[in-house]
Each structure stands twice: as structure tokens, then as C-alpha cells.
Known about the structure:
The protein has 126 residues and is mostly beta strands. 9% of the residues lie in helices and 48% in strands. The protein is globular, with a radius of gyration of 14 Å.
Amino acid sequence: MHAIMLKAKLHRAEVTHAVLDYEGSCAIDGEWLDLAGIREYEQIQIYNVDNGERFTTYAIRGENGSRMISVNGAAAHKAKVGDRVIICAYAHFSEAELAGFKPRMLYMGPGNELSHTSNAIPVQVA
């Protein structure tokens, strides 16, 4: 049996660029890609916290240390500079792989400063 699981997440990153006339994709600071374990050209889901848009694209490498989140091509209609987004990557895992599985999550603060990382989401209380 296999399960599709959250592999990686950048939580509340701020869009720094929205470039309509660029080949589609989302450029992400290369250091964040490495830390999150997201590969260049890997499919990602983007959830725009500010306008509710949800869309699929792929990751491309942005300049290391740039704090860049550039939503490009047609996706630039779904996010503007300053919007807060959640970027997720998912993967298929076998039951054996799930035994030690933990997602890689990066949490962003103001100015796209990396606040902290985690491997678990706290239990939501009522």
C-alpha cells in the first residue's frame, strides 16, 4: 500500500516577484529548496493565504540567500508581490518508508526571514 504525504512545506513565505512574462514556474531561494528537500522542477502546490487561490506549478532554483519567491507565467495572475503563500510538495511513500517518515517544514517570518524549521505540525485544539 502507498500513501501520498506532505513531503515539504514553506509556511507563509512572502511573494517577492510576480512575473507574467516569464516561463511558468516558481523560483524559490536555492538554500530553502535544499533545506526543504524540494528538487528543481518538482511539482509544488501553492496556497495563497491572502486571496485564497490554490494552484499547481513547479519549483525552479532562485539565487541562494535571496529570500526569493517569484511566481511566474500564468501563475502570476494568482499572486502579487507581498502576498503570503504556503508552498507544499507531496510524495508517494510505501508503508515501509512511512515508518520513519517526517516532513521538512520551513516557517517564514517578516521579510522572508527563516523563523524556524520543524518535522511535525502541532495538534490543533478545539
